[in-house]
Amino acid sequence: MTTNLQAYRGSLLHFLADPAFSDKSHDWHEDGLLIVADGKVQAAGDYATLHTTLPANTVVHDYSGKLLIPGFIDTHVHYPQSDMIASPAEGLLPWLETYTFPTERQFEDTVHAANVAEFFLDELLRCGTTTAMVYCTVHPQSVDAFFTASEQRGLRMVAGKVMMDRNCPDFLRDTAESGARDTETLIQRWHKRGRALYAITPRFAPTSTERQLQLAGELATAYPDTFIQTHVSENEAECAWVRELFPNSRSYIDVYDSYGMMRPRAMYGHCIWLNERDRQRMAETQSAAAICPTSNLFLGSGLFDFERADDAGVLLSLATDVGGGTSFSMLQTMNEAYKVARLKGSYLPALRMFYLATLGAARSMQLEGTIGNFTAGAEADFIVVDPQATPLLQRRTARRESLEELLFALALLGDDRAIAATYSAGRQVHVRETT
């Protein structure tokens, strides 16, 4: 029985397929209506058609002149690194030693963890991100703090305790057994509690012993509907280090594969220095790539190869990777992804960038039908995007002659200011302050 029916009018866009592979990839209504009932999408389409179906007393929120799109999904981000974003370093490994590990040490303090979690979620919602795959720290209390904060806001979030038992400071080191034990306890406490989902999270192969990776793989088998998240092939020096640590593995990603960690709901951050067999294996196992352009450019790690990933059929999504990434905004992430694609000799249309940040991410996470578009029954996580948010956006979008030009301007010129409002499960959780 419907107890809370609301409707939202505006230009409406959501995706049905990947624009790179389908001519019928999206649903666009210049004057659209989104109908929400009890936190889920009831219908989405033309205003003229749908508004006559509404009961007489239905509240219609008028966002005419703005876009209604599904909330952005960030598939790789570190909430503990919020305070160290934009920290200078010569590369990934020295950046970890100088900034990341000392910053993460502070999350032993539950109060500090809770404070950062609140700030982090504020930033996500301000930028229109309604779901994220989040790395916590090695401390179980960092996971509790994060999920407590997201639960209070009613958000669909995925997170996990980092597991690392070597090649890191003693103050951040667990053991293979304690890491697995803590992870299982957290799975049982949080996975599928409300809108929370758990991710088994070995930081990356160099900071886990073979025993820890074995136990992580066993947990992945024992809890097949959990997620897996880690890093792979981000940086050439890192790849060389992995070859030294795991001389019997065919490749970096083969390390994870050998421990049963390539499967649906496995999300691999970066995926820059892969070979063709690696990409083929990702496609075979439905493991997904989280593309992190602002982080990869900031740390000089390399350029993601969209063309080869597409040729192999790899599941793709976009991610900010804060704090290696330099913005919480998925619009800014699209901006850099476009440039990365150009530098690798391919072209990334705006339609596809918005797909990768919404339905593409949901598909990568095996959550299509739950989040990512406006199909009936999906959770009503959506954002209101303002093409007139800045003088430059207003001037450029006034001259647009197609949907592609409108979206391209938003991706290349937009940021958090373009997000007028953010809704989670049909409830407004952010509204842009105006002066």
UniProtKB/TrEMBL annotation:
Sequence ranges assigned to domain Amidohydrolase-related in this UniProt record: 68-429
What does the record's cofactor remark say about binding? Binds 1 zinc ion per subunit.
Query: Is Chloroplast found in the keyword set?
Result: no
SUPFAM superfamilies reported in the protein's UniProt record? Composite domain of metallo-dependent hydrolases, Metallo-dependent hydrolases
Mind telling me which InterPro entries this protein's record contains? Amidohydro-rel, Guanine_deaminase, Metal-dep_hydrolase_composite, Metal_Hydrolase, Metallo-dep_hydrolases
**Coiled coil region boundaries:** none
Pathway where this protein functions: Purine metabolism; guanine degradation; xanthine from guanine: step 1/1
Keywords, comma-separated and alphabetical? Hydrolase, Metal-binding, Zinc
Q: Note the superkingdom of the native organism.
A: Bacteria
Q: Which GO terms describe its molecular function?
A: guanine deaminase activity
Q: Which cofactors does it use?
A: Zn(2+)
Q: Which family does it belong to?
A: Belongs to the metallo-dependent hydrolases superfamily. ATZ/TRZ family.
Q: What does this protein do?
A: Catalyzes the hydrolytic deamination of guanine, producing xanthine and ammonia.
- By what name is this protein known? Guanine deaminase
Can you name the source organism? Duganella dendranthematis
Classification of source organism: Bacteria, Pseudomonadati, Pseudomonadota, Betaproteobacteria, Burkholderiales
Tell me the gene name: guaD
